[in-house]
């Protein structure tokens, strides 16, 4: 007789973990590739998709070779980061999953290490993909290829160990259910710092920042929303009642947040109109805001988080870029610092207020107490201070690491594309466009893009050879 299951493996838990991981993977490819690719100008759609898919690939390679163990392995540098090691052997894929510092603090895993590795990989991958939106339309593709592995190693792995791998802030009791800090606050901070260092898009691109395909945005947003069921529902690591609560809370907070943004657009917006893009911003605020709280708060808490997160971020989005330094100086192209940075920060702080101790993550057996969280409104005022301390650590560390990595890369190559490539877009950078025309290109070196002005052949040649600057680039310098 043979059995396909090890004695410790429960097929339902393993099936849910792999399904949840796949849902989270879909949030990156294709969801964010399509969502971001639809928001940007059409001349940057291919570049956006390339950066999303490349980040997904690079993160997986780094993750299995050393970064997973840095985030979820044995302590290496005190309680700050784990010891690098590969997980490509038999044990790394088929042995029982294990996070050393959490042993005895939660139930033993009932699925293989490979399921844990892959589940945590898709979380790692989506983080740099999220802040692609901050630097889109000007960062060099090869700089992105160098930056992502370094950032995963020195920023993300540290965040993960501190809060999820049993490191310093986990030991202090910080609550981050699925990545409000580890993923979204980190993405907002790093994206903002990177945008400041790379510099702004061309002035004409900032003025013409019109989405190229709202239907693609809807497809990406829809997959992102439903993929979040795996994002938050998979994080208890067991297909139990808390996974259900996390999924319900996620959808509830998101619905409230989306409608809050739409109502605020209709009531306080410049044109007093509901827009689909605005609604998507609200949707993302709800998804991000509930992420650190999903399994710790009840339904009322989820409603409050959706409402507060969306309303506050809407206000910040309307005010900071126009009047407050440094937000009025940095070109965060898709507003990642708002919909992810501030939204994640708010969600994490609200956990410190709204975590309900009756929301059980893991049931205690015998003399073992159940695992849950308690916020200030439920008699634990210290939780808010702990949440603030963890947030400050992520902000300072990720900002510093992003700055140092880009400064080092800048010694070897410029961070920005040349102005000629910025003017032409995808056809200059990748040799292809998202919406090719069937009209003859008349020998143009950079081709033509529907909806964009066709630059004469001699100007293309000048751009390609670096031998001249046309009137558009003269305007930029003025």
Question: Which SSEs are present, and which pair or pack?
Answer:
Layout: H1 11-39, H2 45-72, E1 75-77, E2 81-82, H3 90-94, H4 113-130, H5 132-135, H6 141-163, H7 168-172, H8 180-198, H9 203-207, H10 214-233, H11 241-268, H12 276-290, H13 299-323, H14 336-354, H15 382-412, H16 419-424, H17 426-429, H18 457-465, H19 471-477
Antiparallel strand pairs: 1-2
Helix pairs in contact: 1-2, 1-4, 1-10, 2-4, 2-6, 4-6, 4-8, 6-8, 6-15, 8-14, 8-15, 10-11, 10-12, 11-12, 11-13, 12-13, 12-14, 13-14, 14-15
Overall spatial form: globular
Oligomer: single chain
| Terminus-to-terminus distance | 79 Å
CATH secondary-structure class of the largest domain: Mainly Alpha
Q: Stretches where pLDDT falls below 50 for ≥5 residues?
A: 440-469
SSE order, one letter for each helix or strand? HHEEHHHHHHHHHHHHHHHHH
Short description:
The protein is 63% helix and 1% strand. It is built from 19 helices and 2 strands. A two-stranded antiparallel ribbon has the order 1-2.
Describe what this molecule looks like in 3D.
- A hairpin with a 3-residue loop joins strand 1 and strand 2.
- The chain has 2 domains: 11-412, Ammonium transporter fold (Orthogonal Bundle); 436-477, no CATH class.
- It has a two-stranded antiparallel sheet with strand order 1-2.
- The chain has helices at 11-39, 45-72, 90-94, 113-130, 132-135, 141-163, 168-172, 180-198, 203-207, 214-233, 241-268, 276-290, 299-323, 336-354, 382-412, 419-424, 426-429, 457-465, 471-477; strands spanning 75-77, 81-82.
- Helix 1 runs antiparallel to helix 2.
- It is mainly α and 478 residues long.
- It is globular.
